[in-house]
Amino acid sequence: MFDTEKGVLMDRLEKKIKLVILDFDGTMGDTQQLILDTFQATIEALHLPLRSREACASTIGLPLVQAFISLFNIDKAEAEKCRDTYHNIFDQLNVKGAVVPFPCVIETIKELSARGYIVTIASSRGRGSLENYVAEFDLKNDIQFLLGVDDTVKHKPDPEPVLKTLTHFGIKADEAIIVGDTKFDILMGVRAGSLTCGVDYGNGTRDELKAAGATYIISSFSDLLKLVG
User: Fold this and answer.
1) What pathway does the annotation place this protein in (predicted)?
2) What's the predicted TM-score (pTM) here?
3) Helix axes 76-93, 64-72, angle to 10 degrees
4) Which of 47, 67, 155, 228 has its C-alpha lying 20 to 30 A from 37's C-alpha?
5) For 32-93, CATH number?
6) Residue 85: is its pLDDT beyond 90?
7) Are the CB atoms for 195 and 49 separated by under 8 Å?
8) Parallel, antiparallel or unpaired: strands 145-147 and 118-122
């Protein structure tokens, strides 16, 4: 495990990595405040029982319908109503510049792309929103494939987003590394049979990432360059 807390790298890469699959929220983009503000406004608008920001944060990484079911123990139809209200409020709050990339994200992705790695995104966010952020971050020429929540039948922590990406490029699971900030990202990668890398600056804790089975844990996005070589 590569753990920047301990500063140790043990050799786990038996094959050269060809594909880097990235989460977006909490890994590439610092969206937590915007997401939690939107959750709280949605709860208020729909007169739902109060939930703390911490409780809402624990669902980040899940599709919104599943997040609302988890928070309120409601049925799918009610959760879909919550999702739609959330989207409307999010669109109002999501002004240009509301979400910024974490340090070193843009430079590292461009360097990975320049070195010949395939860099993609697999997110529980909608495809349209992802496309907007990729354009805003000036990464349209560096991100080669996007999968949003509307592109898969099953979602994180199910491995379908990873498996679909592997199939698209004809790459084996052990030639890919999945990078994310929550246990849902790590579990998705583990279940696909890929290497996984947790980032500890996002929405999940270091202990959660370890418990989910992260192959590596890093504190700076730029440490990805050390992992893949």
Assistant:
1) Organic acid metabolism; glycolate biosynthesis; glycolate from 2-phosphoglycolate: step 1/1
2) 0.88
3) 120
4) 155
5) 1.10.150
6) yes
7) no
8) parallel
